[in-house]
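lol ok so funny story. i was supposed to be doing the assay writeup but got distracted and ended up predicting the structure for this chain instead. priorities right. anyway since i did it might as well share w the group, maybe its usefull for someone
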Amino acid sequence: MLHKPVGYVCSDIPEGRHKSYRDLLDDCVYQETLHVAGRLDVDTTWLVLVTNDGKLNHRIITPKKKMIKIYEVESEKILSADDCKQLESGVTLENGYMTLPAKVQKISDNKIILSIHEWKYHQIKRMLEAVNNKVTKLHRTQIGGCILWDLPEGKRKEITENNLFSL
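and the output, tada:
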């Protein structure tokens, strides 16, 4: 697992002025064979899983496994009780897709902990747009049984498959 800082892309090669997550793995002998389980935005920080096991990668990202992903979300506008209720019930995205129900824990007027089981493109940002809001800061803290805890930005920690599926 890797704690991806802002400014890095989850592409195997740099994109424009943004470095690849692989630049954070420069001392890893497996660097060239690792791939990200799910793509992430350059403007966010979060837990990233990298693996060279294609079957494991699929198990991580497939919605069928219902692997939990937990995010700290800060929003542009106040998130009302109704907004949180809508997110918990599932929201309809701009393309007509109805998200699965989420778990919402309100931290402050503009901050929630959001737990989901899907991997849709820009899902968190699109979910907040569905309740007429906008994400200003996004940080993923957990995937399955893997939790960032105090892993510093830009650092990695080797984990086992048991760590990932321990929930």
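The chain has two domains: 2-62+150-157, 64-142. The first strand starts at residue 2 and ends at 4.
back to the writeup now i swear
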